[in-house]
Design a protein that fits this description.
4 copies of one chain form a homotetramer. By secondary structure, chain A is mainly α. Chain A is 73% helix and 0% strand. Chains in contact: A-B, C-D. The structure holds a DNA duplex (21 and 21 nucleotides).
Chain lengths: 196, 196, 196, 196
DNA sequence: AATGAATGAGCCTTCATTCAT
DNA sequence: GATGAATGAAGGCTCATTCAT
C-alpha cells in the first residue's frame, strides 16, 4: 500500500477506535489490529502514538467544520439553528459515553501534549462561527453592535454543553429542552430587532 | 497516624494529584509517594484505587456544593450571579489545564465505573439549583411559568462552559465576556418581568 | 481469652478455612478474620503461618485417627471394611474439590516445609493400620504370612485413591465401584483361607 | 528465535519449573528468567500464565500417554505390568517431592481453572487403559465379564498411589512392595481363569 | 493479651516503542 | 514498505510479617 494511502487508513481506523474506546482506550495494539498491520508499521508512518492522534485531530477538525458548514441556509439565524440541530443529531448517533470526536480530545490527558493543537482547532472552528455571524450582520439579520467573537464563543459553549451532557449520560434530559433553549436564547439575543 | 486522619490525608493528596496529573495520571504509586506511605498502606484504607477516587468524588461533591451555597444573598437572581462569580473565581485559582475537580471526573475514562456516582453528584448539584430557582419563584423574582429543572440545567451548562474553557486553556477569552453574558442571558430570561 | 484457648480457636478456624479454600487459599488475613482477631495476634500464638498449619496438621492427625478408629467391630476384616466406608462417607460430606483434610496437606506446596511432619503423621496412621492387621492375625481372620506393613500401605493407597478422585472431581465414578472393589480385593487377599 | 521454537522453549522451561517449585511456585518472573526473556515476551506467545500452564498440560498429556503406550507387549497382562514398571521408573527419575507432572496439576489450586482440562486429560488416559483391557478381553487373556472401565479406574488408582507416595517422600517403602502387590492383585483378579 | 499501623517483596499483566531483517 | 521478536517501565493489587504501643 502506498504510504499516503496507508497513512490515511491508519488515521481512519484510529478515529473509529476513538469512537469505540475513547482516546485512552486507543492503544497502538488496537490501531495496528484494526488497520491490519503490525505495530511497528505504525511507526513507519507516524513518529509516535501522539503523532497518530494528532493526524486524527486534523481529520476531526474537518468533520467539525463539516457540521459548521452543514447548513447553507441563506438566513444566517436559521443557519445557526440548523447547525445546532446537526450537532445534536451527530451526538445522538454516537453511543452513550462517547461525545463529539472533537470533545473526545478535550477530555484526553493533558500529558499527551495535544492541548495546543486542540486549541488551534478550536480557534479555527471559532473563526468559522465568527464569519457566519459577520455574514449575518452584513445581511442585516444580526445586530451590528454584537461582538462577533463573543457570540461565537457562546455558541461554542452551547456545543460543549451538549457534549458534556452526552458524556455524562444525561443527554436525554439536556438535549430535549435546555440545550435548545440555550441556543434559542443566544439567537434571540443577537437577532436584529425589528424596527419599532 | 490515626486511620481517619490517614484516610483524609490520602483523599487530600489524591485530590491534589488529580489537579496535577488528571485522573488517569493518578496512580497508586503516586498517591502513596505523595502521602508518604507505601502502596499497600493505601489498601488498608481503601479497597481499591477506584475506592480512593470515589472518596475524592465525595469531597468534590462537598466542594461543588460549597460553591452553590457560597452566596446567601436573599435576592435569588443576585445569588445566582454570585454563584457564577464564585465558580469563576474557583477556576482561576487552579492551574491551567486543570478544570473544576468535579469536571475532572467527567473526563475520566468510563472504564473506571465512576459515571453512575458522578451522575448522582451532578443530580444533587442540579437539585440544589432547582431549589434555588423555586425559591426565586416563591419570592417573586423569577417567573412562575419557568421550568425550574430546565433553568437549572442551563445554569449547569454555563458552569460546564467555563470548565471546558479552562481545560482547553482558553479561559481568558471565555471567562471575561462570553460566559458572563451567557449567565446574564439566562438570568434575564427567567427574571420576573416588571409590570408594564 | 486464655492463650491455650485462643490457640485452639485459631487452629479450629484454620482447619475450617482449609476445607473452604484449600491450604493455599488460607491466608493469614482470612485466619484472623475468621478468628475475630487482628493479624498480629496470630503471631503471638504461632511463629508463622507455617506454625499454624503445623498445629492444624496435628489436629488432622487426630481426625484421621478417628476415622481409623471409627469402627470397633471385633471382626477385623469387617472393621477394615467399615473404616473404608467411614472414609468414603467423610469424603462425600465435603465439597467437590476439597479432599480429606489430611490429603489437603499432601498437595500443599513443598516450599511450606510441611512434608516431614506430614510423613510422620502418615507413619502414625500407618502404624495404626498395622496394629489392626496384626490384631486380625492374632484373631485368626488374617493370614499369618501376610506382611502387615505392606498390607497397611495398600489400604492407605486405597484411601489416597479416593482422595485423588475427589480432588479431580471424578468421585462419582470412582467411589461407587472401583474404590470398593479395590478395598475388597485387598481384604480378600489378606483374609485367612478357610481350611480346605 | 522462531515463535514455534520460543513457544516450545517456554513450555519446556515451565515444565521444568513445575518440577522444581510446584505449580504455584511457577511465577511468570521465574518462567521468563528461565527462558532467558523478559516477562512481556511470554505474553507474545501465551495469553496468560494459565495459557502457559495449559500448554504444559498438553505436553504432560503426551508424556502420560507415552507411559501408557510404552509397552507394545502382545500379551496384555504383561503389557499392563510393563506400563506399571514404566510409571515407577519415571517416578524414580524425578526428584523427591515432585511427583508425576500430571499429578502436579492435580494438586494445583482449583482457582487456576485447570480442573476441567485436567479431567479431560485424565479421561483420555483412562480411555487408553480401557482400550487395553478390551484388547485383553478379545485376546482371551482377560475375563470377559470384567467391567473394563472399573478395571481401568483401579489401575489409574494404582498410579495415583505411587504418585502420592512419591509426593510424600515415602516412595522407597511403597514402590518396592505395596504398589507392585496392588497392581499384581488387580492383574490377577482380571486375568482369565485357566479352565478347571 | 492484643492490636493499630505499616510494609518489602512479589504477582500477573499491559503499554508504547525499538531494532534487525 | 513491512514486520517479527522483543522489552523497560509501569500498573493495580495481595501476602506474610513486624514493631511500637
Amino acid at each position: 500500500m502506498a504510504p499516503e494511502e496507508r497513512k490515511k487508513q491508519i488515521v481512519d481506523v484510529t478515529l473509529g477506535l476513538i469512537g469505540k474506546h475513547g482516546i485512552q482506550g486507543v492503544t497502538t495494539a488496537r490501531i495496528a489490529a484494526a488497520a491490519g498491520v503490525a505495530e511497528p508499521t505504525l511507526y513507519r508512518h507516524f513518529g509516535s502514538r501522539r503523532g497518530m492522534l494528532l493526524a486524527v485531530l486534523e481529520v476531526v477538525r474537518a468533520q467539525a467544520a463539516a457540521i459548521t458548514g452543514s447548513s447553507q441556509n441563506p438566513d444566517v439565524l436559521e443557519r445557526i439553528r440548523e447547525i445546532g440541530e446537526a450537532h445534536r443529531a451527530n451526538l445522538i448517533r454516537h453511543k452513550r459515553g462517547f461525545a463529539d470526536p472533537f470533545f473526545e480530545f478535550v477530555t484526553a490527558p493533558a500529558s499527551l501534549g495535544l492541548r495546543d493543537d486542540l486549541r488551534e482547532v478550536n480557534q479555527s472552528l471559532l473563526n468559522r462561527m465568527v464569519a457566519i455571524i459577520d455574514e449575518g450582520k452584513s445581511q442585516g439579520s444580526i445586530q451590528p453592535e454584537i461582538d462577533s467573537v463573543e457570540a461565537a464563543w457562546r455558541i461554542t459553549g452551547f456545543f460543549w454543553f451538549e457534549d458534556v451532557a452526552h458524556l455524562l449520560g444525561v443527554q436525554d434530559e439536556v438535549l430535549s429542552g435546555p440545550s435548545i433553549k440555550s441556543l434559542e436564547s443566544i439567537i434571540t439575543e443577537i437577532a436584529a430587532r425589528p424596527p419599532a
